[in-house]
Amino acid sequence: MMKRRMALLLCAVMVVSMAACGKEKTEEKAADTKETAETTETTASEELGEANIKDFQYKALDYVTLGDYSGLDVTVSGEYEYSEQGLVDYVNNKMIGTGADSYYKDESQTEVAEDSIVNVDYTGYLDGEAFDGGAAQNVLLDIAGNSTPGGGSYIDGFSSGLAGAKVGDVVDCDVTFPEDYQAPNLAGKQVVFRFQINYICGHASYETLTDAYVSENFGQDTVEEFLESAKTAYQENLDETYNQDCRMAVIEQVKTNAKINSYPEAVVSARSDDYIRLMMKQFGVSTVAELDAAWAKDTSMDGATVADYRSYVEEQVKSNLDTEMIFLAIAETEGLELESEDFDDYLKEYLGNNEGVTEESLYLNYGSTAEIGELYLKNIALANKAVEFCKDSANITVSTSEAE
Q1: Quick check: 331 and 385 in contact, CB under 8 A?
Q2: What is the distance between the terminal CA atoms of the chain, rounded to a whole angstrom?
Q3: Which domain holds residue 173?
Q4: Dihedral sign of CA atoms 231, 140, 161, 171 in order
Q5: pLDDT digit string, tens, across residues 62-103
Q6: What does the pLDDT look like over 159-172, one tens digit per residue?
Q7: How many separate domains does the chain show?
Q8: 231 inside domain
Q9: For the chain, give me the number of helices (H) and strands (E)?
Q10: Which of 25, 291, 311, 335 is the most exposed place for a label (fewest CB within 10 A)?
């Protein structure tokens, strides 16, 4: 649950939308930007200045007037109580889902229908010769959707000739690739796909679970064992949903009651600069001018410049600071502190849910230096501690709606 808690206040630096700040730019502006950038020789440190940790520090109470935040009356609405139907829905929607793993070999079905999911091997032939990339084995096909179950689509007509075939049949289907197909040797060509119908699938559900299915897909020996684990997961999901709904309700009420008087401009400027430093790393450049030049060549940027981006980022920084400052102000008022063991647990929970992420790489996702990233995460962790303080003191009512 710690990871979910973090997400309520933590906004990933690297996913700030760049497209949103460049839609109005023209190709002429992009060309002008590129020409200017190529004649600029200043370094990143000269353009932005070296990141100084002191510029990222502030006292929240200097900028926030707090309203009521303790003993709040809040109401949440949702399904938080365990029920047998809820367990069935949880297993079907959360644990089994609709992906490829949710299908099993149904030996009772022998003929492919218009809406069947079938397991096939296939090979594509052009002028009688198998072509590269045209073969696959043990593929699930959604006949009605001409796609993999819940996945990508095939070219028009790929699976349309399989309805009516029986398990074990070999079926040849004539298919024409579109004129604009990405492989030039196949664009506009008529080919033959030869299918081997291996079996027809049934869709797994709570009611159709078998020992073989749960063993293959969940690593448990019996349905009974699987359902015991499902009950535990379902209850944890209910508890987590209730906790998150309570937190969100408290956060919104505390924010409504508080007033942001102003923003720490040095922090807004420092964080905005740091976003740009991180973008330089992402694009592999060392100056703002080089970043402008790189963006001028990148059609996805729509001609946006670093100046456009910085203006946009400043507004995002302020938006992120709204919640952060209010709850840091509560921490300052209540004397809440982030103990080292608290932060260690906070990081361990996050890292444990993100394979391959190290403590240092996590810091460098949220700052151009590890020191800056660590400070940012500590602010978020302390703000979350203040959220918990407010939630623990709140009077929480669960709203129930009766069917008319």
Answers
A1: yes
A2: 35
A3: 106-207
A4: negative
A5: 999 999 999 999 999 999 999 999 999 999 998 998 777 888
A6: 989 999 999 999 99
A7: 2
A8: no
A9: 12, 9
A10: 335
